[in-house]
Write a structure and sequence with these properties.
TATA-Binding Protein; 2 domains; about 60% helix; rod-shaped
Length: about 250
């Protein structure tokens, strides 16, 4: 005999499966040859969950806080000219960060390069130690970004959950009020000997039962939304605590 699986259970299972898959997926970071504004250079390239503006904002803040570098924006490229990156290299150069929309909606591709001259940039072949240090710096940025990203997600989902629970309580209160009104009106119908009172009470029952039916449907929808919101909150919390494992 076949059994119908409740939608709420499907939602929870889907979120759980997605959560496990993402929490086990490593954040990719690879060295690539790229072209930025006509300049060919080696770069550390990664894809992060973020919109373009948030990605750029996090990169600017991270560079300022950790390296004292003020990146200037020119279209999709962030640039800092003739600087030194402490802990990476003592050679002066230009930092280039190219941020573009990722292939998957809701993601951004970020390429981090350090140009020493017109056709010379840090790379693993000629500058292995400096390039390795730069890789660690990019990893630290990824940690920084995701801590902010998931913290914001957690706060947003907590706020949504509070609103949904508040809405559910309001609907439950209205359901109880209508149930009481129906019960009270039915008593009038049974006990009253006055035709007008009975008629009014019957009309109240009809109206209240219509409202009650609608309210119960509304409550079911809100309860499903609550289940989904709880699963999404749990996912964001898990990702917040496991991001380090996905980077190293």
């Amino acid at each position: 005999m076949s059994r119908i699986i409740p939608l709420s259970l499907i939602v929870v299972l889907s979120c759980f499966i997605s959560e496990v898959a993402l929490s086990q997926q490593m954040v990719a970071l690879e060295e690539k040859e790229i072209t930025i504004k006509g300049n060919r250079m080696s770069a550390w390239v990664t894809t992060i969950e973020s919109d373009i503006d948030q990605a750029k904002g996090d990169i600017k803040r991270f560079a300022k806080q950790e390296y004292g570098i003020r990146l200037k924006e020119k279209k999709s490229v962030l640039i800092a000219k003739e600087i030194k990156m402490k802990g990476i290299t003592d050679k002066k150069g230009d930092v280039w960060v190219n941020v573009t929309p990722g292939v998957i909606p809701g993601t951004a591709d970020a390429a981090f390069a350090y140009q020493l001259g017109y056709d010379v940039s840090l790379n693993s072949t000629d500058f292995p130690e400096a390039m390795s240090s730069m890789q660690q710096a990019v990893k630290e940025f990824i940690r920084y970004h995701y801590k902010n990203y998931y913290k914001n997600q957690i706060e947003e989902k907590e706020d949504r959950l509070k609103l949904l629970n508040k809405r559910a309580k309001k609907i439950e209160k209205e359901i109880k009020e209508n149930e009481k009104l129906i019960k009270k009106s039915n008593k009038v119908v049974k006990k009253s000997g006055k035709r007008e009172e009975v008629f009014d009470a019957e009309q109240t029952v009809i109206t209240s039962e219509g409202k009650l039916s609608s309210l119960k449907v509304q409550l079911q929808h809100v309860e499903k939304e609550i289940i989904t919101a709880e699963a999404e909150l749990s996912t964001a919390q898990r990702h917040f605590t496991t991001i380090d494992k996905r980077i190293d």
